[in-house]
């Protein structure tokens, strides 16, 4: 099963809470309480997001964390990369020339395909923003349309109706 880490999941939850704050800052303790992310984990994740430049930290009585940019300018790809590293399903999808090659690279016939899959995943994550994650769910599918994936061709007009339609004489 492919799955992002719990810390990345926590990071996305914390970032969506910061996006809902609409420019206000939130302390680590407030964010942990609002999201139910354990305080030590929230602290660790926020430090990683700060190092990645995705959040800013403010000191003082009204201090806390805030988003470094508007939610519409922060992509899910940036968030995942900041917390997980480069997005790729396989190692050959992340190493570049001069990197440590896979021991199967010389005989691998699917490497090019994995790169296409990795690129599709990166593109999909790059199309979704933090603003999309804060918006009601129906908005998300709109953003996923047009990922460059070939669509299925429409059935020719002369094609027979589906079996269920011909049995009843009604098309749905």
What does this protein look like?
The protein has 172 residues and is mainly alpha-helical. It has helices at 6-20, 28-35, 39-51, 76-84, 111-127, 130-134, 139-144, 163-168; strands spanning 55-58, 64-67. A two-stranded antiparallel sheet has the order 1-2. The longest helix is centred in the C-terminal third of the chain and has 17 residues, at 111-127. The model is unreliable at 148-155 and 158-172 (pLDDT under 50).
Number of strands: 2
SS-based class: mainly alpha
Question: Percent of residues in helical segments?
Answer: 40-55%
Which strand-content bin applies to the residues? Answer: under 5%
Could you give the order of the helices and strands?
Answer: HHHEEHHHHH
Which term fits the overall shape?
Answer: elongated
Main beta-sheet annotation: 2 strands, antiparallel
Q: Count of helical segments? A: 8
Which structural traits does this protein have?
172 residues; mainly alpha; 8 helices; 2 strands; elongated; disordered C terminus
Compact overview of the structure:
With 172 residues, the chain is mainly α. The chain contains 8 helices and 2 strands, in the order αααββααααα.
Please give the structural blueprint.
Layout: H1 6-20, H2 28-35, H3 39-51, E1 55-58, E2 64-67, H4 76-84, H5 111-127, H6 130-134, H7 139-144, H8 163-168
Antiparallel strand pairs: 1-2
Helix pairs in contact: 1-2, 1-3, 1-4, 2-3, 4-5
